[in-house]
Design brief:
This protein is of the alpha/beta class. The chain has two domains: about 1-115 and about 300-339, Nucleotidyltransferase, domain 5, CATH 3.30.420.40; about 125-290, Nucleotidyltransferase, domain 5. The protein has helices at about 35, 45-65, 85-100, 110-115, 160-170, 180-185, 210-225, 230-260, 275-285, 305-310, 330-339; strands at about 1-5, 10-20, 25-30, 75-80, 105-110, 130-135, 140-145, 150-155, 260-265, 290. The chain has a five-stranded mixed sheet with strand order 3-2-1-4-5, with helices on both faces. The chain has a five-stranded mixed sheet with strand order 8-7-6-9-10, with helices on both faces. Strand 9, helix 9 (about 275-285) and strand 10 (about 290) form a beta-alpha-beta unit. It is globular and about 60 Å long. The chain binds 5'-O-[(R)-(carboxyoxy)(hydroxy)phosphoryl]adenosine (KG4) and zinc ion (ZN).
Length: about 350
């Protein structure tokens, strides 16, 4: 089965072709980061309009890369939520129109399910069951994944997501959007032990997170004095340490609680090098293995959507009526699907 995947939930337009037998054939991505940079964050209306411009040319590009034609497509998968309503609607309407024209099924995919399963795009693939840490700009969640379609949310953030905390703190430090990678780079020049920040909820005894206090602590520091370049780097370093400390502690606790030995880490913050290094060491000490998607599939992309499409698309056609779910929790999405 050849599936075209379309991701338009936020500020990346991602298209991909996934073949059930042969795996990922082609993928293409356009990031709007530069367009939104001037505003310090994603402007939803601009995002939707840009997705409209990008989807069709990117679809043509993946078809050309894979040496396939529209007529070869057996199904179209698109991100149905969560995400920005207007941006989601672009992908949903193009996907359904295309599927209707080709007389193939269309499938709305949960964006977080796609992140959860994204390590299946590469090698080695994690076997079920596994625990998953999803750390993106919008989410910081821990799931117990027993099999395809069986996901329990075991931990969540009470306020800011880890990526959001990176982005907001980066902004306070005068760094460009998106702040995560820029802050991580600045942290390389920082010194250890010069600044002290809290490790929010590290010892809370549950698997939940809270990162807004960390951002406030940086705000307080930055108001107290004019920040030199070295001071900014020192703050960035301690901030990164603090977030990574909490993420590592909770991810390992989730493995322990569920009696699991495999951990999948996905979402944009999963690209963070310090997180990867610290998790690798800590998991190995616990006899556990950590799986990541390829760096290019850590952030939003069409390949993970096409993959879920290939795993979940049934052959019957849908009625091409569609809706999007800007706010959508994964457990209820799966329950809906089973019902
Ligand atoms: O998964 P993603 O592309 O989009 C969402 O669905 O949110 O994640 C984007 C987030 C942003 O907050 C970005 O700052 C963060 O991932 N990020 C990083 C790194 N690369 C991306 N945060 C820390 N370190 C990185 N290397
Ligand atoms: Zn995402």
């Amino acid at each position: 089965m050849l599936v075209l995947g379309i991701e338009t939930s936020c500020d990346e337009t991602g298209l991909a072709l996934y073949d059930s037998e042969r795996g990922l054939l082609a993928h293409a991505l356009h990031s709007q980061a530069e367009m939104h940079e001037a505003y310090g964050g994603v402007v939803p209306e601009l995002a939707s309009r840009d997705h409209i411009r990008r989807v069709v040319p990117l679809a043509e590009r993946v078809l050309a890369q894979a040496g396939r034609e529209l007529a070869d497509i057996d199904g179209v998968a698109y991100t149905q939520g969560p995400g920005l309503a207007g941006a989601l609607l672009v992908g949903a309407s193009i996907a359904n129109a295309l599927a209707f024209a080709l007389k193939v099924p269309a499938l709305g995919v949960h964006h977080m399910e796609a992140h959860l399963l994204s390590p299946l795009l590469g090698e080695p693939k994690p076997e079920f069951p596994f625990a998953a840490l999803l750390v993106s700009g919008g989410h910081t969640q821990l799931y117990a994944v027993r099999e395809l379609g069986d996901y329990s949310l075991v931990g969540d953030t009470l306020d800011d997501a880890a990526g959001e905390a990176f982005d907001k703190t980066a902004k306070l430090l005068g760094l460009p959007y998106p702040g995560g990678p820029a802050l991580a780079e600045l942290a390389l020049r920082g010194r250890d032990g010069v600044v002290t920040l809290p490790r929010p909820m590290k010892d809370s005894g549950d698997l939940n997170f809270s990162f807004s206090g960390l951002k406030t602590a940086v705000l307080t520091l930055s108001r107290r004095e004019a920040l030199t370049d070295q001071r900014r780097a020192d703050i960035a370093r301690e901030f990164e340490h603090a977030i990574v400390d909490v993420l590592v502690a909770k991810a390992l606790a989730a493995l322990d609680a569920a009696g699991l030995k495999r951990l999948v880490v996905a979402g944009g913050v999963g690209a963070n090098r310090q997180l990867r290094e610290r998790l690798a060491g800590a998991a190995a000490r616990q006899g556990a293995q950590v799986f990541y998607p390829d760096l290019q599939f850590c952030t939003d992309n069409g390949a993970m959507i096409a993959l879920v499409g290939a795993l979940r698309l049934r052959h019957e056609r849908t009625d091409y009526a569609f809706t999007v779910h800007p706010r959508w929790d994964l457990e209820s999405a799966v329950a809906q699907d089973a019902g």
